[in-house]
TrEMBL record:
Record's keyword terms, sorted: Iron, Iron-sulfur, Metal-binding, S-adenosyl-L-methionine
Family matches, as Pfam families: B12-binding, DUF4070, Radical_SAM
Organism classification: Bacteria, Pseudomonadati, Thermodesulfobacteriota, Desulfomonilia, Desulfomonilales
Protein name: B12-binding domain-containing radical SAM protein
Species assigned in the record: Desulfomonile tiedjei
Signal sequence annotation: none
InterPro entries in the cross-refs: BchE-like, Cobalamin-bd, DUF4070, Elp3/MiaA/NifB-like_rSAM, HpnP-like, Methyltransferase_Class_B, rSAM, rSAM_horseshoe
Cofactor: [4Fe-4S] cluster
Domain Radical SAM core, first and last residues per copy: 163-384
The keyword Iron appears for this protein: yes
Annotated PROSITE patterns: RADICAL_SAM
Gene Ontology terms for molecular function: 4 iron, 4 sulfur cluster binding; catalytic activity; cobalamin binding; metal ion binding
Any one Gene Ontology cellular component term annotated for this protein: cytosol
Amino acid sequence: MRALLLNPEMPKSFWTFEQSCELSEAKALMPPLGLLTVASLLPTEWEIRLIDLNARGLSEKDWEWSDMVMISGMVVQSEGMLELCRQAKQRDKTVVVGGPYVTSVPDALQDSGADFLILGEGESIMQEFLASLRSGEKSGFFREREKPDMTLSPIPRFDLLHLKDYAIWAVQTSRGCPFDCEFCDIVNLYGRKPRYKTPEQLLAELEYFYRLGWREEIFISDDNFIGNKTHAKAILHKLIQWMKAHGEPFTFWAQASVNLGQDPELIDLMTEANFHTVFIGIESPDESVLTGTRKFHNVANPLGESLDNIKRNGLSVMASFVIGLDHEQKGAGKRICEFVEQNEIPSVMLNTLQVLPNTALWERLKREGRLLQDRTSGQSTGGRFNYVPSRPESEIIEEYLEAVNRLYEPSGYLSRSYGYFLAMRPTRHFLATGETRPPSDNDRSFAERMRELRSLLRLIWWQGIMSPYRLQFWRQLVGMFKNNPTRTKKYLVCLATGENMFRMRQVISERLNQK
């Protein structure tokens, strides 16, 4: 059997990071971890070809080579999934679809001609699907009966990738989240009871990366890495030992809840393991909005205090906010901007609410007759609402556009970044040795050093030469060298991240002003 695994193109959004990919000379941000895991569950005698359309093109020869086409994607990739399914059926291919979108909305893919639908996590369904295939079945509908034990999850087939196509590689240590936020689809997809890989499984995947030659960033793709702090600490203790034994070849970032800021021991373990950033869903500075969406852990402690603790102890925060939630009052966009500026958060993901299928919010709005079910795109970076909001849509859109222009304005972004990294303590290595360069820098190859130099020169060209704020760029860079030199590299990475947001303003404006 020749199986062609396809990951559809991702529409432009906060997460596509085109400019960051350009700086790192990559074609896409990170690989499709779900499809790679599916590939590892297929029979070893099968020939497998994986094409991520965010990094590589799909040719007619690829179609001709395949016996079976397997497609996966998220809700935001729905149009791409449907189109690939139609193209495969036009070529008379057997089509298998799975992943978050089809699990949430199976009818759309079934109507487009898919032969086999796999709903849920592959580890619990794949053997049943393969048995059906071996018995000669030409179609089927497979839904997981229970959530799989992640200790049985194999190492994903990273060998199917081109190493340099991606700016970041990804691993997963858990699925599910203990919280039950009304608008989030994680509980529906993966359950409220988190399930875990063992520390040894994670280290085996990192060893695989190491042997393949990867020496860059790794994203821990768990929905909440600290959802079970005992598990997170067990992972970190083993990870710290492995990293030291291997010369600290990787840096990490992860998604976490804001209660991380109340656990200095956990922050300390993360920085010792070489974590540099956490993505945190703050959603709103308004307590009434947070409690209304059941995000109670964001009101248990003062948000500003938690974020300040994370920053000062060595982790940078990438913060997510949502406009359009119920209980929101006029001026929500302005209050988000004021909160961001007060806490000097550089990188901000600002979303328009998209109600996702089968969430608690979806069900409530459906009961209230406020759901527009034919407009679910999953596009939260300036996407149109797929529901009737609790205040005028025109008012919300106006506030959103004003907030995007304010938060993604380059000079303000640079100013926040400068204040943020100046306030961060020096690196652990500097505090222990007095050396500004981390030990991993000594092991970088000549090619890696040249790529890093080219990235720096591009950033200087964009912000230090061609921009109207170039004097601010140089003034702040000199200030970082003088006042907190060990954070200069991460400060520059943060400025590079800003390029994505500066250019996203135009995309968002065009998207929301379309008739």
